[in-house]
Design goal:
The chain is mainly beta. It is 11% helix and 46% strand. The protein contains three helices and 16 strands.
Length: 244
Amino acid sequence: MALARVVKLVTRMTYGSMRWRQTFYVHWIVPADTLVNRIPKSTTLDRWRGHAVVSLVAIDVEGPAPRKLLQTPVAHLFRYRQLNLRTYVEGPDGPGMTLLETRVDRLTWALGARLAGMPYHLDRELVYDVRAASLELRARGLHATGLVSDAGAGPLTVGTLEYFACERYRAYAQLPVGRTLCVQIAHPPWRARPVALQETITPAPLGLAVDAAPASAQLCEDVEAVVEHVALPGGEEEAAFVPA
């Protein structure tokens, strides 16, 4: 079977509409040389004001699944928590991000994503809880708590670190066969509130051994996201996909 057909089949099986709830970001400025060998071959590091950036992202997710299915009583079957560490790249289809490590609390989603080349792993210790004014994140080797600003959520400002890191709509991944996969996502622009972390955390528990203090943290409002397009940049093989 041609590679494009395999990618299209896996994509239709594993992607669709998603509801991203209570998305929590923590950003660090890190040495670029810790990342250059960990990004897909056809990409280069994208930098904010000359600096390499990584972000921890915690999300309460529903999907991916057909949108109509997420509007039924069985939607809870597609719900799980995800924790990832990502960095930012320029790729053949434009700026985006790439996952360095991802953990989920349900085995099904770990296996499905790995078929598409994503570095997903099961973490049964993953717990993510958001309340009106605080949040807590626990995972294997990691514990973070934060106080959420009582100010209303607002759009991210162009040119800031938060905008650079959060407003990303392409994900690049290295497939096992060596090709680069690009998944293009669509969702409304983020609206966020600042989070004051109650302890210093580093990206080391997620596999990036750097000693850096967080530069910024925020909690975003819920969004619905869809996969618009899946492609193998640099070749003729690609598959368009808009979920029903």
